[in-house]
Amino acid sequence: MGQRVAYEDVASDADIVAWSREYCRDVRREWGVDVRFDLVEWEVSARAKRRAAAVKRPTLPDAAVGEPYDWERLEGADGRPLPCTLSLTREAFEAFDRTEWEATLRHELVHVEQYQRDGTTDHGRAFRERAADLDTDVHCPAFADPKYVLSCVACGDLVARRYRDCKLVRERERYRSDCCGAELALD
To answer: 107 is in which domain, residue-wise?
Structure first.
């Protein structure tokens, strides 16, 4: 392994990946995150404009959060999870301070951990509990201004940011917040 890149010296996409990968390895060691990094590919997205990072993964049949996935049943999986890709966004890295970027990475590690165990991931109760364990939020900080912000009527928590008109915005009365089960307000 080469010399570790200092956060303040990150200049290229390769540096973002190198620094982020090392930080995530530290999180695994210090916070007890159950992730196999040999099954994680890393990239910096050239297209992402609104999401700070994402875990790209295959959609697997009958996968459900909270139910360990039987990786043996997939041809070619050899009993181990199929690889996923942790896709990072340069604009988010540049907009966030170090604390926000670290929290973003911990958020994504929850997704990787869920995927590798359960074959899928979401932002439900299990995610929220694990995010709290890792001192991160359910939603990553915004670095682009959304056109629509939806919040929970009962507690005011952020439910979603949308950058264009969509079904959730148009038909928000049909949806409920995950936090309180309340209606959604358009802010």
So the answer is: 7-133
Q: What is the mean pLDDT of each run of 10 residues along the chain (187 residues)?
A: 82 96 97 96 89 94 93 82 95 94 98 97 95 92 85 92 88 90 91
Which residue, 107, 182, 123, is CA-closest to 151? Answer: 182
Q: pTM for the full model?
A: 0.80
Report the number of distinct structural domains present in the chain. Answer: 2
**H helical segments located in 32-97:** 90-95
Decide: helix, strand or coil at residue 25: helix
DSSP H helical ranges for the chain? 13-31, 90-95, 98-118, 125-133, 167-170
* Together in a domain, 16 and 92: yes
Cα 164 to Cα 23, 72, 159, 180, 183, distances in angstroms? 34, 41, 15, 25, 20
Distance CA 102, CA 96 (A): 9
